[in-house]
Amino acid sequence: MVNPKLKDNLTDQVCEAVLLLRNPEECYQFFEDICTISELKALAQRLEVARMLEAGHTYEDIVARTGASTATISRVKRCLNYGADGYKIVLERLRQKSNGK
Question: Angle at Cα 81 formed by Cα 80 and Cα 85, nearest 5°?
Fold first, then answer.
């Protein structure tokens, strides 16, 4: 279920645009244009935090590897436990891809 606070025509357009990207190079091009470098790095950091949390790493390990604040780690953990399962979908598909499935 999509959060109704997020769903509107403009956000739909961004989601549709992402789905049209065909490869990592196109993703880099799009995200470089639509995000600041800091915003994109923050998204990447959060995904790595989620991956590490799912793998059972401690907050200390995650801070050392990613530089994320404990507040960011806590927020990502809350999303993993009680969120919309977006991280779980992506992490599972990344695992499948790396395993050649």
Answer: 50
Calpha distance 18→72 (Å, rounded): 24
Which domain covers residue 71, as residue numbers?
A: 37-101
Q: Is the pTM of this model over 0.85?
A: yes
Task: Write out pLDDT tens, residues 27-74.
Answer: 999 999 999 999 999 999 999 999 999 999 999 999 999 999 999 999
Report how far apart, in Å, the C-alpha atoms of 100 and of each of 7, 55, 90 are: 34, 19, 15
- Distance (Å, whole) CA 77 – CA 27: 26
* 72 shares its domain with 89: yes
